[in-house]
Amino acid sequence: MSTNAQGIAPEAQSRTQAQRTAISDKAMLDAAIDLILEHGTDKTTLAAIGEKAGYSRGLATYRFGSKAGLFDEVCKSISRGWLDYLQAGVGDKIGIDAMCAALDAFFQFVSDSPREARVLQILYCGAASPKSEYRQTSATIHQRQQDDVADWVRAGQARGSIRASADPKSVAAQYIAYISGMTYLWLINPQSIDFGKANDEMKTHLKISLSPATKDYERD
What we know:
Layout: H1 17-39, H2 46-52, H3 59-64, H4 67-90, H5 95-112, H6 114-127, H7 135-159, H8 168-188, H9 195-209
Helix pairs in contact: 1-2, 1-6, 4-5, 4-6, 5-6, 5-7, 5-9, 6-7, 6-8, 7-8
């Protein structure tokens, strides 16, 4: 495919600049997902991403600035897709109902978009590196998720469907840790777990442990 100096194909010239940018960005994000799955993050280069997307080798650098900048946008893009599933599944539910609905939404997202889910987990793991340039994006996404869950818990407590002694932040951290841990196990060895059954067990655990009828564990 021939391109001009900016890496734009001639047949795309009739489109507006915003349309061309959106199309090329999506193509490069899709190419990044493919290459990360094939080669991992270390061996995925901006030049290869631009070329695989059908543009000039330098367009990815021009658009995203660095590999970390592109990976940062991949994280955000996939997370926006997951958020669509979450909003559709949870709606106006609160408390335990919202937490259970979110588990169903996550399972559906992983089932419908396994490539994106795998790449997101790969990037999250990479963000744990002290030198990761997209660490803050990952931290912000996880914090927002925990805040949402904590809000569901508080709303459930206000309605009386969750025991008042439950600590919203602790419950939220454990809940997000479950999702992150299960996704990691699925990424490493998908045959080792049954996501659907695990989620059913988690729902039962949430209903029992957070029920107002459940007594607090005795503390020494």
